[in-house]
Design the sequence.
């Protein structure tokens, strides 16, 4: 399976392990990632708050570049980028005036033929297609599948899964041997980009997410969003300060959990880059991998 | 030679604002055959009609074209006016220059020209009209009432008390409907059963009412005054004539854990059961899907113990055919269940219940004998959250309409809970309070001001369970949108009222229209609220739209009076716009070749086979014949006839061609 790939800024920075683990999984399931050449920032949370045309033009350039590669599907692992790109496709299709304006700004052809796809749907499809894939080390843990705000909403635009109680990540986790729990914070907001401006608010929101996941017996929170991961993992000390208690539950990318099940090493998957230790969860993986998560 | 009169109506400003009516009249006067052409402000008014009558008499008109509104609006008016002046009503036609012209176009020369063209078309048609006589059909003076809830009960009693026969068909084992499930009723808090059960008994004992419970409409043929209904009387597996209602069978039935439909799933029943002790008829049915005898072949305890020997395991469904003249459809509604709401746990939490389930908890005849105890552990809840608009007025859920009854019953629920649990807290989340009705707003104020229900304007985003409590997350949008979290012991969702499952199928059987939500459509939303577009079929109650009890009863009485009005005549007039098959003198007899393609397409089964014989009875050929009693004039047979042997009176092929040619 060949697919265009837009990593976005996060996956080259704070969420480098998302990129590493995605590539590690891709290698094992025959997913051929074609990185969009000369890609730019999608505008993330700032552009659409400041300039409407710019917020469409930035993702549109990525779409136009993807069209040039001739690959029909574009994988966007970061939930925020995914939401920006798919919203742009939706908006430009609905609004011909804006479409003309954006084309003029870009000076590029733009046909809006690219299908923007998130990591959950692509992994599911690729796993189904690849016959040779073997689950060598089932990820036998209780997992809290955390979708966040942007992956399934707004439903009218993304048209993916059910907005209130999505199941796609739960199903994916089941196929690699995990046991998803029923919990209440699947699609709650983590505070996202408020993390710098209102850290305490973000910490409070995150503490409730971790609290519920831990209270219901999850071993790990699984996410597909770099922003959610950063808030739940990197802000752990702030979260604990707000909650007045400690949370030991680690947070992993969906690709890392799948990667472990497929036999990738912890280092290959960038598990050593997390703030909260994932050591116990890698017990099923090879010995070499367990060693490296210690500093 | 035709002498046609054209009458152009201004319809106040409705037509005159965009169409130059005087000019239309002027253009019309030059159409060949038109001998009289005028315009007037309100043609349907008394002076307007007089213009037509005078012209018919003075100018000896042979046809009339009224250029005005839709024929659905005023065709009967103008045909009657023509008839009064001595011109056969079917020689009067309407050119619709309002809905088809002035309302949909801008003011201008082209709009006026189109209006004139519409007149020209109808002039050509009316030149070829024939004088027709209405068809007289007899009326079968028996009404079929579908549904034995309060609407069906009221309609049946009203018709029966007027001296007409009624057949009341109810799908369930007992009549009573949703009203029998309710605890108290707003705005007076009188007990629902106390006011309903006497009427149920009256239905059962009324000499003019035949009650068929556990029965459903199988199919319907015919037309107003002359319907033929086939009713499936489902096998009760109990002989109703022998059964005395002693209830020994129910006490001894070993299958005791079946969720009770009457108790909205929060109580249980046995496999042989009556839905509730006050059921009418008080005769049990066997639920064969859950009965041990029907599942395994072993058991049969009810049969062994029945003192009247009324249990009949071998009883089969029975089809009953009845002739009826009118039908009242009163099949009611349903509510969506809690599993409709992923955000509220998909029905996962036993203490998140529907309003209907709360009714059963609050009812003296319910599973808790009227004590408010939550389903999970039977504890008396200390905090109850009521959610109005659960599903209703929510486009994302596909239910954009207001369910109408929830504001009132939620206030009632909060009130009943506070009356029964004095220390309890009752929160109500609402969007708006819609309490339009006699004493309704006063009732809601009483819940808030006297009974201390805590009303919060805002919606609930999610409900989840934590440490044995239901955490209800919402917002108070009246006070700055502050997020609110309430730890509740029980949550009651005022879930949306929806059409009954099977409503669509029933509508198709009855040939009545229904809306996008499968509620049945009335003929006119304001002026014909109890009639359907199919003559002789009337609506009552919540099958048309969510309604409370007073409204359902009012509509049922309205439908009943329509039925009685219909039954006050011995014969009915029908429009004679029907198809006929070509017939001529021997040796041809008819150009019909007897292919009977028409028979296979006719939706009303009006095509019959007729064998033409010689005088001594030898068959010559078999041709189609249209039964004038059944034909509805749809014209499908005309369209498929390969030899053009069928034509439709009032819409003949030659008329339609003339209409098209008028534009050439």
Sequence:
């Amino acid at each position: 399976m060949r697919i265009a790939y837009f990593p976005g800024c996060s996956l080259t920075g704070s969420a480098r392990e998302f990129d590493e683990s995605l590539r590690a999984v891709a290698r094992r399931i025959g997913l051929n990632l074609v990185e969009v050449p000369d890609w730019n920032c999608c505008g993330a949370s700032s552009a659409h708050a400041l300039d409407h045309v710019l917020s469409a033009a930035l993702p549109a350039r990525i779409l136009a570049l993807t069209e040039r590669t001739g690959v029909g599907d574009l994988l966007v692992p970061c939930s925020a980028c995914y939401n920006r790109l798919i919203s742009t496709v939706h908006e430009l299709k609905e609004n011909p005036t804006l479409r003309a304006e954006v084309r003029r700004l870009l000076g590029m052809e733009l046909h809006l033929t690219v299908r923007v796809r998130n990591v959950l749907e692509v992994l599911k499809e690729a796993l189904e297609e690849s016959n040779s894939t073997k689950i060598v080390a089932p990820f036998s843990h209780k997992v809290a599948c955390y979708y966040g705000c942007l992956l399934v909403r707004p439903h009218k635009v993304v048209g993916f899964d059910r907005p209130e109680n999505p199941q796609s990540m739960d199903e994916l986790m089941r196929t690699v041997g995990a046991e998803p729990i029923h919990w209440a914070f699947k699609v709650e907001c983590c505070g996202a980009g408020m993390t710098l401006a209102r850290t305490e608010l973000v910490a409070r929101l995150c503490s409730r997410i971790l609290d519920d996941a831990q209270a219901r017996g999850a071993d790990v929170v699984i996410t597909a969003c770099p922003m959610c991961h950063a808030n739940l993992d990197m802000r752990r000390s702030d979260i604990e300060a707000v909650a007045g208690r400690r949370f030991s539950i680690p947070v992993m990318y969906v690709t890392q959990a799948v990667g472990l099940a497929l036999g990738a090493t912890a280092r290959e998957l960038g598990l050593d880059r997390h703030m909260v230790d994932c050591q116990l969860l890698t017990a099923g993986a090879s010995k070499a991998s367990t060693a490296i998560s210690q500093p | 030679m035709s002498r046609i009169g054209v009458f152009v109506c201004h319809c106040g400003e409705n037509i005159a604002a965009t169409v130059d009516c005087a000019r239309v009249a002027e253009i019309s006067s030059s159409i060949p055959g038109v001998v009289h052409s005028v315009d007037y402000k309100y043609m349907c008014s008394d002076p307007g009609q007089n213009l037509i009558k005078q012209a018919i008499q003075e100018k000896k008109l042979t046809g009339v074209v009224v250029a005005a509104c839709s024929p659905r609006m005023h065709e009967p008016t103008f045909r009657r006016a023509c008839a009064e002046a001595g011109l056969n009503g079917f020689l009067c036609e309407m050119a619709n220059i309002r809905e088809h012209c002035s309302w949909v176009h801008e003011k201008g020369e082209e709009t006026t020209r189109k209006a004139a063209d519409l007149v020209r078309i109808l002039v050509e048609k009316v030149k070829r009209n024939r004088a027709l006589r209405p068809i007289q059909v007899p009326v079968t003076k028996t009404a079929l009432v579908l549904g034995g809830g309060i609407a069906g009960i009221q309609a049946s009693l009203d018709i029966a008390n007027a001296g007409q026969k009624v057949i009341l068909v109810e799908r369930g084992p007992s009549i009573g409907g949703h009203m029998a499930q309710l605890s108290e009723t707003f705005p007076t808090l009188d007990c629902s059963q106390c006011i309903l059960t006497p009427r149920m008994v009256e239905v059962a004992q009324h000499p003019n009412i035949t009650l068929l419970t556990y029965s459903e409409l199988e199919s319907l043929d015919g037309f107003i005054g002359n319907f033929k209904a086939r009713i499936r009387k489902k096998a009760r597996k109990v002989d109703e004539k022998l059964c005395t209602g002693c209830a020994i069978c129910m006490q001894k039935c070993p299958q005791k854990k079946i969720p009770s439909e009457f108790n909205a799933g929060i109580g249980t029943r046995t496999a042989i059961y009556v839905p509730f002790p006050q059921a009418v008829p008080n005769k049990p049915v066997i639920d064969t899907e859950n009965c041990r005898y029907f599942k395994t072949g072993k058991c049969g305890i009810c049969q062994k113990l029945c003192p009247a020997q009324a249990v009949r395991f071998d009883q089969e469904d029975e089809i009953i055919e009845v002739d009826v003249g009118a039908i009242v459809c009163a099949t009611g509604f349903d509510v969506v269940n809690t599993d409709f709401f992923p955000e509220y746990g998909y029905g996962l939490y036993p203490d998140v219940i529907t309003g209907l389930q709360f009714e059963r908890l609050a009812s003296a005849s319910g599973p808790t004998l009227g004590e408010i105890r939550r389903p999970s552990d039977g504890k008396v809840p200390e905090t109850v959250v009521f959610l109005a608009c659960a599903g209703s007025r929510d486009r994302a859920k596909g239910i954009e309409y207001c369910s109408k009854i929830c504001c009132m019953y939620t206030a009632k629920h909060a009130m009943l809970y506070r009356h029964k649990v004095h220390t309890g807290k009752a929160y109500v989340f609402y969007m708006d309070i819609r309490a339009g009705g006699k004493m309704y707003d006063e009732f809601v104020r009483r819940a808030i001001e006297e009974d201390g229900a805590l009303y919060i304007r805002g919606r609930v985003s999610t409900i989840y369970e934590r440490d044995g409590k239901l955490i209800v997350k919402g917002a108070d949008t009246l006070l700055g949108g502050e997020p609110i979290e309430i730890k509740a012991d029980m949550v009651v969702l005022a879930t949306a009222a929806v059409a009954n499952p099977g409503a669509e199928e029933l509508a198709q059987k009855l040939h009545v229209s229904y809306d996008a939500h499968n509620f049945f459509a009335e003929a006119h939303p304001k002026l014909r609220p109890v009639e359907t577009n199919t003559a002789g079929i009337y609506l009552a109650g919540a099958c048309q739209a969510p309604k409370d009890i007073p409204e359902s009863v009012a509509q049922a009485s309205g439908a009943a009076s329509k039925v009685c009005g219909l039954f006050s005549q011995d014969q009915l007039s029908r429009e004679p716009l029907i198809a006929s098959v070509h017939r001529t003198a021997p040796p041809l007899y008819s150009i019909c070749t007897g292919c009977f393609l028409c028979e296979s397409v006719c939706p009303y089964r009006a095509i019959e086979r007729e064998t033409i014989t010689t005088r001594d009875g030898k068959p010559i050929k078999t041709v189609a014949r249209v039964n004038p009693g059944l034909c509805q004039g749809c014209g499908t047979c005309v369209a498929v006839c390969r030899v053009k042997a069928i034509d439709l009176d009032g819409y003949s092929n030659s008329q339609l061609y003339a209409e098209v040619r008028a534009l050439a």
About this structure: The mean pLDDT of chain B is 95. Chain B touches chain A at residues 341-343, 346, 348, 396, 462, 464-466, 471 (CB under 8 Å). The CA atoms of residues 360 and 366 of chain B lie 5 Å apart.
